Amino acid sequence: xxxxxxxxxxxxxxxxxxxxxxxxxxxxxxxxxxxxxxxxxxxxxxxxxxxxxxxxxxxxxxxxxxxxxxxxxxxxxxxxxxxxxxxxxxxxxxxxxxxxxxxxxxxxxxxxxxxxxxxxxxxxxxxxxxxxxxxxxxxxxxxxxxxxxxxxxxxxxxxxxxxxxx
Length: 166
Fold this sequence. Notes:
- This protein is mainly beta.
- The protein is 0% helix and 36% strand.
- It is built from no helices and 12 strands.
- The protein has a 4-stranded antiparallel β-sheet with strand order 1-2-3-4, with no helix packed on it. It has a 4-stranded antiparallel β-sheet with strand order 5-6-7-8, with no helix packed on it. Strands 9-10-11-12 form a 4-stranded antiparallel β-sheet, with no helix packed on it.
- Strand 10 and strand 11 (139-143) form a beta hairpin.
């Protein structure tokens, strides 16, 4: 179960009472929504809830379900909070991953970027950092409205550059 763990004025409460595992929680920029991965409907899906409502929506509903990795951050929100982006391998035999986006109110899942594993939006929302599954986890940055990216860092094969942030 996902639960807040802080002590202080917000208190502590259980976010879900789903059976099984909920993981990869992400909080919207305004702090009102939480997205997470759960196998509640029999496969890993992206779920969302408005904090304090105890109402949950399955955003992916068995469509385009990636294989989520516990070694990377696979969920996040767009800078304006209107979309949830998620990444993973659609085919577990493939090495590459893809990034997808789905509206927080539900709707069509659209591809965001082929080959991306993790996203970190810039504070102004105009660009994002990401890495791929290539050896050394090449870390790049690109404009949201542009093609291609500018590589910032690549490590030696076997080394990793996970969890990009601004």
